[in-house]
Amino acid sequence: MFSQNTNNIDIRIEELLNQLTLEEKIDLLGGTGFETKPIERLGIPPLNMCDGPLGVRWGQATAFPSGILMGATWNPDLISKLGSALAEEVKAKGRHVILGPCVNIARLPMGGRNFESFGEDPYLTSRIAVDYIKGVQKENVAATIKHFAANNQEHERMFVDVQVDERALNEIYFPAFKAAVEEANVLAFMSAYNKLNGHYCSENEYLLKEKLKGEWKFKGLVMSDWGAVHSSIPTFNNGLDLEMPEGKYLNRNSLLTKLKSGELSEEVLNDKVKRILRVMFSIGLFDEYKSDSAKINTDEHKQIALEVAKEGIVLLKNQNNILPLNKDELKSIAVIGPTSNIAITGGGGSSMVSTFYAISPLEALEKKLGDKVKIIFAQGISLNGTIRPIKTEFLFTNVNGNENGLIGEYFTNKDLNGEPARVKVDKIINFDWEWDSSFEDFPSDNFSVRWTGYLKVDKTNTYTIDVSSDDGVRLFLDEKLVIDDWNDHAEMTNSYTTRLEAGRFYKIKLEFYENGGAAICRLGLREENSNLLANAISVAKNSDVALVFVGTNYTYESEGFDRQDLILPQNQDELIKKIVEVNPRTIVVLTTGSPVLMNEWIDKVPAVLESWFAGEQIGNAIADIIFGEANPSGKLPITFPLQWEDCSAFETYKKEEGVSKYDDGIFVGYRHFEKNNIKPLFPFGFGLSYTQFGYSDIKVTKNILTSDDSLTVSFKIKNIGTRKGKEVAQLYVSDPVCSVERPVKELKRFAKVELNPGEVEEISFTIFPKDLMFYDNHWKIENGEFILMIGSSSSDIKLKSSIKYYE
């Protein structure tokens, strides 16, 4: 066995490596679902992993706010606390590795996983990622930064060839990954599904060998995304260490003979094994690994989730200071909209958390106001995804109506082939098997189910049948195929609307298969109510204030697919317009993971809040801000466009099958809008407060910067309003004359400060030559003038100063 009396990890790794057989080394390269293979002979334990970046996806846990909201806090210190809380819950679940953070740049406003990442800017993303990772790893849990690299769309994500130039990679898509290595000592990387410039990321020599392990000197392990490996030899040779969820390609059959013959290098194999062992030793897995099983959704973790949610909510509009509301001046409030009475904690896919607790805005407002203000609720519109399982009394196994439920036939393959392994009556179809088997002695992956029986409702009306699934489903009603989505995907909802007659038996058949990962299938029914909108209008008309909650949910924004457009689904724009027509005191609260269009109503409503997917505390955070118990301080980490056509990816997205050409280069997000002089709906870095701030007295310690030097820029911020509040001061740099085209400005520093009314604080930023560089085959700076700009957003520059750089 290895030595226990030394703290030198490298020595301990070598001792253990020398005792492993060639076969055992190979075994360590392939997972077993969400673990690595243990080598019991030598006491090597499994490395236990779990999703996800927004909360532990292993049973119930705290649902922390979405990544886009974390970015909107512009508060890395706070996100470090979130990382530590998350890590405590990872350990409490008996896991060792969290599969996060996700740092892919929001290039495409409809990107299905924008909500998981930190926004469009590489510097902001880097700062949030570094502190997230430090918070996680401080608790002896390994963080996994993902998805490396250029995984900026879900459309065709499993095979799309992302074609992007080296400058854009290094200036836009790599910085957060590089900072994670060099500043946070991140222990694990996850390679992306897509190809990058012709080669799958899991076997991409440029990505994994040249950049990550070569130039950046990464010492940890590189794992694949689940099912992202496509070869044995190229994958082995080009930098991947661990194939997940299993060693389909990296195994004894494919590697052993070639290693024994010398065709493959045992030195390369040893390096992979060392990296896996290094993660185990780094988190203390071979020593006394301490965890507390009670550290799940503790009061402290709930408070952190609440604080992050409040700091990331962005006030986009506040005409005539209608917000915050004063409860003493109100008699009635209309609470309207499809996201008002449901806690939209996050988007869909592997980041979705099963919560112990989640509070909707309606519940939080009722709790806060009690009987002081009358709250009148009207949903107005229904969104997909709010599955209400079909009642058992509406389902029958036969037309005699003497047994409720549907007959479930469970197959141990994905194709409903052969005889079912199990047959039983399921009273309702509302299954979420997560990563565990549906029942004992049944596979957790690669299975299918067919449910058959009859549906009978008690009232004649128009109904919508909803099927939510991860992965494929087919629904037949009276032998007619009405839903056909026989494809792999994260959880999403398909719907079919029809008229059903009371008392009639409708033959129903639901088929479902699960490929890998989560296994979810829900069958719901909702009665269409033509009075929903009319009721909402009536309620708004007769209330002092109308709070309209609109947005999306996990069925619209999810891993596995991109949104089709930027429009609020289910005609929510019409709902807003109708409400503000009858009540000019209408406040819109958006619950989304990425931008939406607001052109139809933004000029008509006096106030707009962007709450994002704010985790389990979403309702409490919104209620605190609406009534002024918290002052909004979030700033947009992503540009909100006036229209999709204004965005940098518009000309190339979905234009060529299997290929995504990043012709926008480095001009992503605000860089694109400013280069082309396009006015956005709301700019990057924008966010209002209930107070106001003044900027003054910019000073630079020296006007000339040289290659081995630094300088400091300082300025003052004063709270010139009447409320305590927080402001995010942003420093941008411009290089007006350069041999290559550069952005109008680039974010290089920021600071979030809290000030009482009348309070002044001086802020200082240190600038180094590397902050002025651009990439042209290598990082470089050209002599000349640079402009330092201080602002409250990318488009609201308050102060400027110029400096000169000389080699």
Concise overview:
The protein has 807 residues and is an alpha/beta fold. It is 21% helix and 26% strand.
Describe the overall structure.
This protein is α/β, with parallel strands linked by helices and 807 residues long. It has four domains: 20-282, Glycoside hydrolase, family 3, N-terminal domain (TIM Barrel), CATH 3.20.20; 299-380 and 534-675, 3-Layer(aba) Sandwich (Rossmann fold); 392-428 and 446-515, Jelly Rolls (Sandwich); 693-806, Immunoglobulins (Immunoglobulin-like, Sandwich), CATH 2.60.40. It is built from 17 helices and 38 strands. Strands 14, 15, 16, 18, 20, 21 and 23 form a seven-stranded antiparallel β-sheet that branches. Strands 10-27-26-25-11-13 form a six-stranded mixed β-sheet, sandwiched between helices. Strand 20 and strand 21 (480-485) form a beta hairpin. Helix 4 packs across helix 5, helix 4 (76-92) packs antiparallel against helix 12 and helix 14 runs parallel beside helix 15 (572-582). The longest helix is centred in the N-terminal third of the chain and has 17 residues, at 76-92. The relative contact order is 0.12. The model is unreliable at 1-6 (pLDDT under 50). This is Beta-glucosidase-related glycosidase. Keywords: Glycosidase, Hydrolase. InterPro entries: Cellulose_deg_GH3, Fn3-like, GH, Glyco_hydro_3_C, Glyco_hydro_3_C_sf, Glyco_hydro_3_N, Glyco_hydro_3_N_sf, Ig-like_fold. Residues 401-541 form the PA14 domain. Pfam families: Fn3-like (PF14310), Glyco_hydro_3 (PF00933), Glyco_hydro_3_C (PF01915), PA14 (PF07691).
